[in-house]
Amino acid sequence: MAHHQVLIIGAGSAGLSVAAQLCKQANPPQVGIVDPAEKHYYQPLWTLIGAGVFPKEESQRDQSDYIPAGAEWIKEYVSSFDPDNNIVVLTNGEKISYDVLVVTAGIQIDWERIPGLKESVGQPGSGVCSNYSFDTVESTFKNIQDLKRGTAIFTHPATPIKCGGAPIKITYLASDYWTKHGVLNNISVKFIKGGPGIFAVKKYATSLTKVADRYGIERIWKHDLKELRPDKKEAVFQQMETGEEHIEKYDMIHVTPPMSAPDFIKNSPLAASSGWVEVDKETTQHTRYANVFALGDCSNLPTSKTGAAIRKQAPVAVHNILAFLRGNALPDTYDGYTSCPLVTGYGSLILAEFDYDKKPKESFPFNQAEERYSMYALKAYGLPRMYWHGMLKGREF
């Protein structure tokens, strides 16, 4: 069977960052990357695309342009893991062995867990939209433009999601759009979240609450979307503590679907009880299989699932993988750093940065809990360039 010194599962943000950094070494290991996707997406841009700032094509590139020189691209899906024998089985039946396995398979979006969602999202006239798919993201702005009066609901599920701030960001942007077009007073805006509170870090939560108050957004906590009835434009929510269900009528609903670890990870020996790959939160090394590492959205690292977190996780994983291959102790640790650029309107942003302890870990010499155009410009124009030309090319910063 084929063999790779380092076999990487997934060519998203984490997989390509690790692969590029490994391939840039003076004496690089032999790297294989398993991922069938022909396109790569800069998904943090989807919030702004959903608000009409950019066309969706701005977020898309050919995957082939970012597979690093020296790495072998294996265009297949993974069927199963056999970590006791250092083997990965592909869906075509092929087996690949490895010295080190790196699992960076991202997150699974479970559209089908909400009855009525999959068939209605992005459909003209349905009022149902979502920024969480390249195919549906532009329907969000169409719905925002078309709504002149009525009820607009924005949901945030009880499951972990990629970019935990994204659901409230599109709520703010839509509210700002309606303000600018003089119709916000005719629209009841509701943000309904399966969890408690607007944000996990108090410093930023205080500022975000003021923004929500400014727009008149009603916040409903601990209510999870369970079903859509698109023919009646009804959404069924369940109160997380009592289990009681209630119905909300809508004219527009932006749904952030529930998410989970990919099924092939959930059903593998690599998974923790939560379904995510079980790793040490400081080293990214698996807790039971020493030659397995995982980072990014598919791991159980207890931090937000963001590209910014991956930017700090990848160098740690690479340094530790190289040390492991040499038989040395793992030298590097990750402190849980993550960042969430919280867009509060067209041209304004709060840049939240914090660590495992939910303590702010800010990059700039000013109060980042304040709304700023400079941070919006960083999000809209700076970070995409850093991503395509820096992070995916193996640059550490």
Structure, explained:
This protein has 397 residues and is α/β, with parallel strands linked by helices. It has two domains: 2-107 and 262-334, FAD/NAD(P)-binding domain (3-Layer(bba) Sandwich); 110-259, 3-Layer(bba) Sandwich (FAD/NAD(P)-binding domain), CATH 3.50.50. The protein contains eight helices and 21 strands. Strands 1, 2, 5, 6, 7, 8 and 19 form a seven-stranded mixed sheet that branches. The protein has a five-stranded parallel sheet with strand order 10-17-11-12-13.
How would you summarize the topology of this molecule?
Elements: E1 2-9, H1 13-23, E2 31-34, E3 39-41, H2 46-50, E4 60-62, E5 71-74, E6 78-82, E7 87-90, E8 95-103, E9 108-109, E10 128-129, H3 137-146, E11 150-156, H4 166-180, E12 187-193, H5 202-215, E13 218-220, E14 223-229, E15 234-239, E16 245-249, E17 252-254, E18 259-260, H6 263-266, E19 292-294, H7 307-326, E20 338-345, E21 348-354, H8 373-389
Parallel strand pairs: 1-2, 1-8, 2-5, 8-19, 10-17, 11-12, 11-17, 12-13
Antiparallel strand pairs: 3-4, 6-7, 7-8, 9-18, 14-15, 15-16, 20-21
Helix pairs in contact: 1-7
